[in-house]
Amino acid sequence: MYKYDQLDQTIVEERVAQFRDQVARRIAGELSEDEFKPLRLQNGLYLQLHAYMLRVAIPYGVLSSRQLRQLAHIACRYDRGWGHFTTRQNIQFNWIKLEEAPDALADLAKVQMHAIQTSGNCIRNTTTDQFAGAAADEIEDPRVWCEIIRQWSTFHPEFSFLPRKFKIAVTGSPNDRAAVRVHDIGLRMHKNARGEVGFEVIVGGGLGRTPFIGKTIRDFLPKQHLLSYLEAILRVYNQFGRRDNMYKARIKVLVHEIGIEAMREKVEAEWQAIKDGALQLPQDLVDQIAAHFAPPPFETLPAGIAPEYAQAFRTDFEFGLWARRNTAKHKQPGYAIVTISLKKEGEAPGDASAEQMQAVADIADRYSFGEIRVTHEQNLVLPHVKQADLPAVWRALKAYDLATPNVGLASDIIACPGLDYCALANARSIPVAQQIALRFKNWERAHDIGELKIKISGCINACGHHHVGHIGILGVDKAGEEYYQVTLGGSADQNASLGDLIGPGLDARQVVDAIDAIVETYLRIRQKDEIFLDTYRRVGLKPFKEAVYAAA
Amino acid sequence: MAKAPKLNDRPHVVTANHLSTGDVVYLTAQNEWSRAIADAVIAPNAEAAAAYLAEAEEQARRNIVVAPYLIPVDTQVSPPNPIQFRERIRAFGPTTEAA
Q1: Best CA proximity match to A251, nearest among A377, A176, A159, A172
Q2: In CATH, what class is A6-109?
Q3: What number of CA atoms fall less than 13 Å from residue B12's CA on the CB side?
């Protein structure tokens, strides 16, 4: 993975020193809250419902075991012993004291981590496929390009005060695990007719109060032009994006208002002026960065299923259940990708205790070259595990309650922090997720239902990605009571779609029964091999709507 | 059934976040701040509420707390119970067990 050079390290350390001074001046009364607030937000420090919350960047979701151990240390030393992994592949600590925040950031800087680009109207932390560099279906490793984007975008002076925040996601695989069609810019690597690898550039996607699926602005962008093309898009957005109304300030609204054709003309015109300039990427620089992401020293193993794995799969039912849901195909023969579920039924989605973080770091050191990934679905990943080691990894995870066999199933729910923690929320998310997960705890039923992505947001800002849930749930405040609107048929993958509203809102108790009724309807009418989303796309809202409101 | 009183007619307390720790705090009768809503001074009417808020805003200017505001509470129970659901979660903590 990428290792900081002296410049990266200096930037991060200087930032800590600067923020330490700003905090001291705030506490001494030399800075007012109005003066201080934008400064603390630029360092990822929010004032939330209960306390200050520190959002730490995990660039493109990649962590070393050493970094994960340091996050465990932060959780113990500065917080209440746990952290919350987010839908942006970051981690949040919920109970940080302002007076200790500079020390926490200094500890992060020791392991090349920080809270830069986690807030404010800048280019945020770039996200990608959690299986990058490991997935069997990958065309090229997207982390190289994420790192190039990180270096270009960090403290980019022209783009530090955009009309609104700006999020870029990259996938190097045709099976999109990074939700690139619902980002301000999505980059999808693919091959053109000549077999060259480049980017499809998608612009103007997003969730929030006005959700849009992004539109393709360029089918094929040669790799060496990535930064100049991004810069051209950002310039057009910076000039024409609306600053008069924060709810209309995202690039998706600009693209929607002027249309993709006009957007493309403006971007192309800007790009022609800069494309052969300083931002053209020299191959030797790309190679230097790519070298940081060279594959780890894999053993040469035979193709096919490792005998130790096959044996355990046959003889240990519980292991087999886990292996079926929580492992994915690796590009290297004899290896597998392991997803560690942070969705034990009844727990808060995405939460991990310091002890669990330390355990995962130890397991990664022993079995996955010390590498861990964070997924936007709020789980962790061990990217490079030998198939023969899978039974041992499963046992080690199980000892820390980290072997719930539910990846992609009904209980693997995305949930934002909701009204339990967030100052913006209108309704709670976590307790609803907990109740639904408990309802679908029975493994036999859950595996029979199969892939089902339930996503819950506690307000219209949609941090819980409800618009793109197969089943989406949005919490609203209706005269002081929590109500939940249910949408069906959303998807964040390569066939992205926005969910359709099923009908009037439901209260917290009704919503769990409603989800149950929707799932029962699916089980009754599904055709062979259909997952819930397929059935929904075939039959539409009607039977589900009838089932939900029949009892009401 | 008697009509529920409007929010503004109810007793209020002043809440804020403590500047250096971020803790949720309530203004007390001694013009200090407590993490427990049980210690909060109750403003029985709008006049008292305005006076307590003015004191709290002065303390915000002196950088003791951040962004003070008034919240309506039910004083028929002990400790006083915020009327708004959001404020009950602020007063008594998240409604979910953390990991």
Answers
A1: A159
A2: alpha beta
A3: 19
How far is Cα A152 from Cα A230, in angstroms, rounded to an integer?
A: 10
pLDDT tens, residue by residue, A311-360 = 999 999 999 999 999 999 999 999 999 999 999 999 999 999 999 999 99
Chain A CB contacts of B66 under 8 Å are 33, 47
CA-nearest of A399, A372, A377, A464 to A426 is A464
- Whole-number pLDDT of residue A480: 87
Q: What is the pLDDT of residue A15?
A: 97
Q: Which residues on A lie below 8 Å from B88 (Cβ)?
A: none
The domain ranges of chain B are 7-92
**B5 falls in which pLDDT band (50, 70, 90)?**
low
Gap from A97 CA to chain B (nearest CA, Å): 4
CA-based nearest residue in chain B for residue A98:
B20
Domain at A134-291: CATH code: 3.30.413.10
Q: What is the pTM of this model?
A: 0.96
Distance from CA of A101 to the nearest CA of B (A): 10
Q: Share the mean pLDDT of chain A.
A: 97
Provide, as residue numbers in chain B, all residues whose Cβ is less than 8 Å from the Cβ of A98.
Answer: 19-22
Determine the Cα–Cα distance for residues A167 and A182; give it in Å rounded to an integer.
9
Mean per-residue pLDDT, A196-206? 98
Chain B CB within 8 Å of residue A430 CB? yes
Please answer yes or no on whether B21 and A97 come within 8 Å at the CB atom. Answer: yes
A33 touches chain B (CB under 8 A): yes
ipTM at complex level: 0.92
Chain B residue with CA closest to A345: the answer is: B99
Q: Check for a shared fold between A134-291 and A414-550.
A: yes
| pLDDT at position B96 | 87
* pLDDT > 90: percent of chain A: 99
Q: 3-state SS of A267-284?
A: HHHHHHHHCCCCCCCCHH
Residue ranges per domain, chain A?
6-109, 134-291, 307-398, 414-550
Chain B residues touching A356 at Cβ < 8 A: 99
Q: What is the CATH number of domain A307-398?
A: 3.90.480.20
Helix axes A6-27, A33-41, angle to 10 degrees: 160
Closest alpha carbon within chain B to A37: B66
Is CATH 3.40.630.10 the right assignment for the domain spanning A414-550? no
Nearest chain A residue to B17, by CA: A51
Q: What is the pLDDT of residue B7?
A: 57
Q: Which stretches of chain B sit within 8 Å of chain A by CB?
A: 17, 19-24, 60, 62-63, 66-67, 83-86, 89-90, 93-99
Side chain identity at residue A6, one-letter code = Q
